[in-house]
């Protein structure tokens, strides 16, 4: 443990025990970071401690001024597979370029390097690592191209730290995007998602237009359009306790415009 303050809460314990062959599934967690020095060590410890020998971690850092990239490099040296290969690696990018672009670059690299599944996960402790096994189990048993860690299916919950106003805003943003796009995914704006490699190849990450948070909506819409099955697994979403949110006006405006753009392009 790195110390109480720096350790994100493990908001959920792993309740799913995967069969051994499934636990060895090549799955890469892609984690974008910008100024997450206080969160990253705890996140890495949490992920590397899971009972999933097939799990790898790829951190995508946009030259964080607080040195997150260097911390990631140092941490990566400490985690090797049974045959001495790295379990954790870092993709360094030169400038802050948006969460969407960081995810797109990292997910493309993960697939290129042989991942059969790619999990998107934020570095701020919001997403429950203990749910990864269940999401992988659902993907493998149903053949779904996408498994959404969902706040808005029965059993899904939001942090108590969120007031009524923020909860309502999140619900509203979610309803806004899915109504415009005519989708039935309950958590279309959520950022804790497991993708199969074939789904990511079909979506073509290079064609993604979103720089910021609308990445989540664009990706899910494109998966549905290409006919992939989408499943949702309930999660508890925790509020960040360390560091600051990177949400700003530009990404909010992009999120308002993107559903309309996607709808127009789809000819709906
Ligand atoms: N590499 C990179 N990561 C980012 C960028 N913007 C946000 N992130 C990361 O994306 C994740 C989600 O961002 P966060 O600020 O928590 O968004 P919020 O949960 O909506 O407030 C965190 O791990 C951030 O460090 C960016 O421009 N580049
Ligand atoms: Mg966050």
Quaternary state of this entry equals single chain
Name the beta content range: 15-25%
CATH class: Alpha Beta
- What is the number of helical segments per DSSP (H or I, 4+ residues)? 9
Number of domains: 1
Uncertain ranges: 1-12
Helix share bin: 25-40%
Shape annotation:
globular
Q: Mean pLDDT across all residues, rounded? A: 92
Largest sheet: 7 strands, mixed
Identify the CATH homologous superfamily: Spore Coat Polysaccharide Biosynthesis Protein SpsA, Chain A
**Cα distance, first to last residue?**
51 Å
How would you describe what is shown here?
One of its GO terms (biological process) is glycolipid biosynthetic process. Helix content is 37%, strand content 15%. With 268 residues, it is of the alpha/beta class. It has one domain: Spore Coat Polysaccharide Biosynthesis Protein SpsA, Chain A (Alpha-Beta Complex). Helix 6 runs parallel beside helix 9. The longest helix is centred in the middle third of the chain and has 18 residues. The structure holds guanosine-5'-diphosphate and magnesium ion. Magnesium ion (MG) binds next to loops.
């Amino acid at each position: 443990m790195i110390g109480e303050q720096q350790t994100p809460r493990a908001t959920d314990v792993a309740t799913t025990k995967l069969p051994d062959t499934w636990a060895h599934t090549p799955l890469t967690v892609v984690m974008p970071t910008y100024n997450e020095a206080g969160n990253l060590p705890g996140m890495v410890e949490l992920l590397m401690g899971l009972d999933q020998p097939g799990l790898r971690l790829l951190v995508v850092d946009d030259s964080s001024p607080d040195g997150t990239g260097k911390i990631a490099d140092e941490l990566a040296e400490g985690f090797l597979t049974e045959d001495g290969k790295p379990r954790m690696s870092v993709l360094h990018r030169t400038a802050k370029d948006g969460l969407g672009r960081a995810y797109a670059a990292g997910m493309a690299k993960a697939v290129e390097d042989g991942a059969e599944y790619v999990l998107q996960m934020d570095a701020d402790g919001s997403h429950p690592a203990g749910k990864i096994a269940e999401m992988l189990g659902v993907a493998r048993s149903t053949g779904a191209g996408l498994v959404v860690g969902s706040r808005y299916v029965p059993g899904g919950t939001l942090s108590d730290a969120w007031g009524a106003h923020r909860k309502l805003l999140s619900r509203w943003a979610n309803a806004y995007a899915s109504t415009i796009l005519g989708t039935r995914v309950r958590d279309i704006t959520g950022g804790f998602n497991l993708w199969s490699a074939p789904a990511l190849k079909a979506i073509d990450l290079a064609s993604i237009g979103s720089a910021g948070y609308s990445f989540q909506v664009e990706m899910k819409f494109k998966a549905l359009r290409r006919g992939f099955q989408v499943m949702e697994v309930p999660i508890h979403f925790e509020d960040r306790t360390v560091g600051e949110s990177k949400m700003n006006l530009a990404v909010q405006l992009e999120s308002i415009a993107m559903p309309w753009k996607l709808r127009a392009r789809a000819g709906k």
